[in-house]
Structure formats: structure tokens, C-alpha cells
Write a structure and sequence with these properties.
Helix content of chain A: 40-55%
Number of helices of chain A: 7
Strand order of the largest sheet of chain A: 2-1-3
Strand content of chain A: 5-15%
Shape of chain A: globular
Number of strands of chain A: 3
Low-confidence stretches of chain A: none
Order of helices and strands of chain A: HHHHEEEHHH
Largest sheet of chain A: 3 strands, antiparallel
Distance between the termini of chain A: 41 Å
Radius of gyration of chain A: 20 Å
Largest interface: C-D, 98 and 99 residues
Structural class of chain A: mainly alpha
Oligomer: homotetramer
Mean pLDDT of chain A: 95
Amino acid sequence: MPWDELKPRTFAAFDRELDGISRQTMEEHYKLYEGYAKKANECRRILNELDYAQAEGNQVYSPLRAVSVDYTFALLGYKNHDLYFGHLGGEGGPPRGRFAEVVEAEFHGGLDVWQDSVRKAASAARGWVMVGYDLNDGSIFNYIMDSQNLWAVYNMVPILAIDVYEHAYVRDFGATPDGRKQYVEAFFRNLEWDHVNRQLVQAEAARRGASESGAREPEPAGSPA
Amino acid sequence: MPWDELKPRTFAAFDRELDGISRQTMEEHYKLYEGYAKKANECRRILNELDYAQAEGNQVYSPLRAVSVDYTFALLGYKNHDLYFGHLGGEGGPPRGRFAEVVEAEFHGGLDVWQDSVRKAASAARGWVMVGYDLNDGSIFNYIMDSQNLWAVYNMVPILAIDVYEHAYVRDFGATPDGRKQYVEAFFRNLEWDHVNRQLVQAEAARRGASESGAREPEPAGSPA
Amino acid sequence: MPWDELKPRTFAAFDRELDGISRQTMEEHYKLYEGYAKKANECRRILNELDYAQAEGNQVYSPLRAVSVDYTFALLGYKNHDLYFGHLGGEGGPPRGRFAEVVEAEFHGGLDVWQDSVRKAASAARGWVMVGYDLNDGSIFNYIMDSQNLWAVYNMVPILAIDVYEHAYVRDFGATPDGRKQYVEAFFRNLEWDHVNRQLVQAEAARRGASESGAREPEPAGSPA
Amino acid sequence: MPWDELKPRTFAAFDRELDGISRQTMEEHYKLYEGYAKKANECRRILNELDYAQAEGNQVYSPLRAVSVDYTFALLGYKNHDLYFGHLGGEGGPPRGRFAEVVEAEFHGGLDVWQDSVRKAASAARGWVMVGYDLNDGSIFNYIMDSQNLWAVYNMVPILAIDVYEHAYVRDFGATPDGRKQYVEAFFRNLEWDHVNRQLVQAEAARRGASESGAREPEPAGSPA
């Protein structure tokens, strides 16, 4: 599809009271999401309209590289928050549905270990924890991201996104590591697991779709060594 | 699927002479790919075997965060090179097949603009150019990556990967910006467009699969403001 | 000098009421500073005690590289905040003393331009603005830092440090760009210019000291081309 | 001092044959150094000429932030290589002079441990090893840098710079980890220890100068807790 402008959308989470995460935090947070959409659109328009026959391609500094790099910050700022706001407004509780099934069966150590591991990852990240489904091997992993776009990986579909930027918790829980821990528990109390499960179902269907396309590389005869 | 160890595989490109890219460059390059697989496996095993009930989750320094972050460097080091070696060994020529169709119809400016833009991106990147298909909106974009894992995005399927790390071209073309340009032309002379087209067919099928899964968020009634 | 452990110290700013920056923000902020000192010490001890004859040096992943990299995050987390807390507790007002003199005489555009430029930099940074004195050429520049250690430069003495991490302002001013702007004005209302001037006097003395040491490279006769 | 344009200078290393590092590598390498100077000047001029009253300060994307960030890449690209080329053209051998004295007396483990540790750091870095003298505490540390500007620290004077970017060694030693190790040994065989000692003498004089300036913060009476 040709690229089209990102549009901030509405989320059920903004229609209800959340448990521990204040309306003020959510409303300020939404303004950041709008800012990411606006800047992603601005960057992509600049790149679409460049005269590439004339533009300088320089790896030290060139507008082309600068806009391309910060576009990914803006784009993932949008994608990350789109997922995060979609998660909130639920009843929390332990993982259930397809996500619980898959993690119990396939994550190293099962569901109990995952529940510990995702909390430790949320303390160890500087920006986001992104639980992702790898389209190559179908495995699930807790990716630690240090900003909107630091240490993302591709060919991966995000299933569960926890924002641990300070804007997500400082007002309600304080800027300390303990404040963050309390916030992460609040996040899980407000999580809509149906939303997480829909992400996972889409991810599994994407992998199945790719596999059924039959677009597979023929095996080479030789060997590199 | 439970995670399984990455295994370096064989590539047709190693069975033939490439035009301008020496066998020595390719063989040294393959050793780096083996190193990424080995380190990705080492990191993932460390993370699988952590005692998460006891492990420290600290965002300044903790083994958990360090291994998680460098795992993505190793993992994309593997994924990037797996794609890159798969591309080589072809007859080059202008883009053809599904990739040419889609870029002509949907990339801003069409195929001619894309051909200029990808070359400029290859001069402006510090590590890789990754032409990717966005699973959210189905658009194609030239992502500039500054290392194996800097500025990747998720929910994106890679279609065409150009390694512009110096190991890919210094021996054959020299370390200068002009040397890199000559290398990029050699890359295109050796490109197997069928491989690129298979990547794109998989990506489109993945997006269709996700869409047909019906796992879609219900529209919220309210509005955030 | 042999390395010695970093010790969090006390600051005059914590003895008085600041204008617009709450005690709660300051106290939580101080806990982060203590955390940086603790982690810097932990990392440096690990590195001091490594068996370097046996240790693996691997650029993809090795404990050596992981600890070395995050040590700089911890170290600059300490240095940045040490400077920042030292700045606060003053009477604000326009720049005065040596800093005003030097900026008026030497910064491109003079003092008025600098006052605009540092505010714009504070909106454009993701972590810190560090006004630094370059020991090579003696010029003053507003460095934009995206985290505790992203985009620092060496052979530079920091003169004025503005923390624009969200922990510095979200509680008191909100997480939005406008909230940050109000915070930056509050920072300047509480700034002790004497402290800034002492930093600059030290920086100039350091450069003079290096210059008077006479440890200068002899000019080579030839030319590289 | 007002900022002045960086000018690539000449180095004794280009007047003689180096042991193991080819003239072709050195000449291509010098072109990169010229490129860094040119881009540093371009970025600084853009920043000097911005209309800061009107300029957008935006942390997601703004030309101000993009140019400021890549300026540090260009500036350290220049500073790093200026030091590196200054080191080469010597007789190598074990560390001697002031550097040997200070490392033996103050580096944790002494000179033998340092000799192992710097080699392991050179294998573990993705861009540079920068042996630096900290102006705060006078200690010496092997900083690992992943690019021209990733993980630098300020208030530090560089003493010894080892370029481990692939452009420094691929042509002469191959792109593999073993190739890099051979290159690092060649670097030490060509090292002019006098140059390193001059850097250290300057660093110590800078610290003494700052200390003797008497520009010291008065101790606060209170305590933060």
C-alpha cells in the first residue's frame, strides 16, 4: 500500500477510571502520542519529497540520514503507544487465553517464570519492554528497549508493550525504582488480556500466512566452507 | 514455537564467482555471521537459564539488561547477514517481478526514484540499508541502520538488505565513500531479484494472514479529549 | 591517582525551598544520583577485578564490553547530577560574571543568542543539555545528550548542566513539551551563577595548565598527500 | 576562544613505512579524517547561523537536534583520528616514560594487567578504545567506544586512542576477530610512546591547573536526607 499519514486514534482506556494510573498522566501521555504521529508524518513527507538524484547521502551528517533515523524514533513512538493505550482499560488478573497457553507451553520455564521475567525486564529497561513474537521462529521474547527505537528488532510482531519511560509513572508513583515497580503492578491490574491475545493471534496468522505463501528459498547444493 | 538455536546455513552465493566482491571478503564475512549465530545462542541460553525470581532488574547496569541488549545485536547480526548472503549470486539487472511492480505503483516517486533513493541511503547509513515492508500499513521504506541493531523497527518484514559495514567492501573497493559507492553497484550486479521477490511475497502473505485472522480491536465509543 | 569509590555528596540546594521545583522531586532525584554512584562503583570494581589474561574480549557480547559500556552510563549519571544539584539553590537572573563575559565575547551571536539557543536545545534534547568548554580550542558549545551517556564528548569540561529527563519535571510541570519549557524556566530561576562561573574558571585554568606544560607535538616536516 | 574551523593537519606517520599497516590503508584512512573535519565544520556553521528565536526545538525530530547530535559524531571523528595518527610512526616496545610510571603505580593491577586489559578492550569495542585520564579523580581507564561518539565521557582527557573500526585493519589483516588482534599488535609495534606521554603530561597539567585555580564549591552545611 502507498504510505498514508498516521492518525492518532481513540482508545477505550480513556473512557474509564484506571486503577492507580491517573487521568492526568493519561491525558499528558496522549499528547506525546499525538506528537509522535505528527513528527512521523513530517519526517516521512520530507523523505517522500526529497530530490534523490540531487540529495547528499553522507553517513557523518546529511539531512537524509538525520530525518531517516529520527523517523524511526517517531514511528515507533507512535506504534509503541498505540499498542500501550490499546492494552489499558481491562480487568487485569493473571494471563489467560492464547497468550497464557503459548507462554506456558513454549516460553522457557513457562508462565510463572515469564511473570517474573517480564517484571525484571521492566526494571531493567530504560524505555519499553516489548514482548514480541518472532516471525522467523515463532518464539516469544521480552525485548528490552532503551528508548522508542533503541534495540528494536524486525520480523517481529509486538504482543505486549509496557511503557517504562518516566512519563508513564512519575506523577502517580514517583521517579524511583520502587515507584516504577508499583506502576508496573498497576499496569498489569489494568491490562486487557483480550487485546494481548488478539495481537498474538494476528502474529501467529501472519507467520502462517508467510509460510503458506510457499515463497521459500531453494536449498543450495554447496557449502560455504 | 519454543526457541531453538540458530544455525548458520549455506548459501548459493558461495558456490560461484561474484562480480567485484572477492571470495576472501565473502569468506571472512561468513565467519562474522557464524560469530553472530554463536553469540545469539549464548545470550539466549543465558537469558533462558536466569533465575528470574532472584535476578536483579536494574536499568543502569545488570547482567539481565546487558545480555538482553546485546542479544539484539547478535540476533540482527544473524538475521541481517542471513538475508544478505541469500541475496547474492544472482544476475543483477533492474528490479523485476513483484518488487518492481509494488515499488512502481506505491513507492513515492516510483521505481526510478527508489533506485536513486536506495543508493543515497546506502551512502548515508553507518551499517545497513534495510528495505522493509510495514505490516501495519503495507508500505515500503528504506530504513537506515547504523549498526546491526540501531534503528530497526518491529512489525516490519525485511525485503532487501544491503550491508554497508566496512567489512563488506574495504578489501575490494577501499574504505572511502567512493569505494563504498562502487561496492553498492557491485552488490546490485550480483543481486538475485527472485530472492527479494520471495521476501516480498512472504511479507504480503503475512499481512494478509494477520488481516484475515479477524483479530481486530473493537472501536471504542468515546474519544480521548 | 588510583581510582576511588564515588560518594554521593550533599548540596546546598537541599537546604532551601526552590522556586517551582518541589522537595519531593528533589528527594526522588537524589535517590537516582545515589543509584548512579552505587552502580558506577559496582561496575568499576568488576572491571578492576577481572582476570584480563583469561577474560573474553568480544564485541558482540562479553561481560567486559557490557560492564564497560554501562559503566559510562553510571559514571555520567553521577557526574551529570553532581553538577546539576550543585547549580541549584541560587537566585537565578541573567547570566553574570565570567560566563556572561565569555559568552558575550566568544559565542556566535553573543549572550542574547545563547539564551535562546540553550532553551531550544533544552527542548530538543532527550536527556541533558551540557554547556561545555572544549579543552582543544577553548570554545563553548551547547551539547545535546539523549541519555546520561549518549553523545558526550571528551576533552571537554562541563560548565552548565540542565537535566531534561522526565524525572526532573513531570511531577511539577507535567510530561508535555510545555511542561518541560516551564521547568527549564524554573531551573534558570534557581540557578546559582557563581557555581557556573567556578566551573568555567576551572575549565580555563585546565586549558592554560595543559598549554603551559609545554607537552606539545613537534610539527612534522612532510604532508600526508 | 571563539570557535574556529577544524583543519586536517599533517602527521609524521605518513612520512615513513609502518610495520604491517599499509600505505593504502593510511591514505584511505586520512580521507575519512578529512571528511570528519569538513562535516564538523559544516554542522558547527549551521548551528552558529541558526535563528534561535525562531528555530524549532523538538526532541523527536528537529534540524537543531539532528545537526547537534551528528556534530558530535563528526567532532569526535576528527579528535579520535587526530590522536590516532599522532600516535603512529614510532618504535613501539613496552610502555615507557610517564605513562608506564602512572599505570604501574595507579592502574588496578599495574602495567602487566593494563597490557592485557587494553588488548581485551580492543577486541570488545565496536569502534575505539580510548585510554582516558579523568579530570575529576585523576584515574586512568580504558573506555570502550562503539562508534566515533558512542559512550564517550566528558571531563576526561584522552591519552591513547586505538581505532578498531574495520577501516583500520580489514585491508591488511582481514575482517575477522583474529585479523583485528593482529592489527592491534601492529598498532603497538608502531606506537610512539612519546606522543602518549605528552598527552598524559598535558592531562595532569590540566587537572593541576583546574585545582590550583581555587574555583572550588563551598561545602554545604546540611544534608539531603
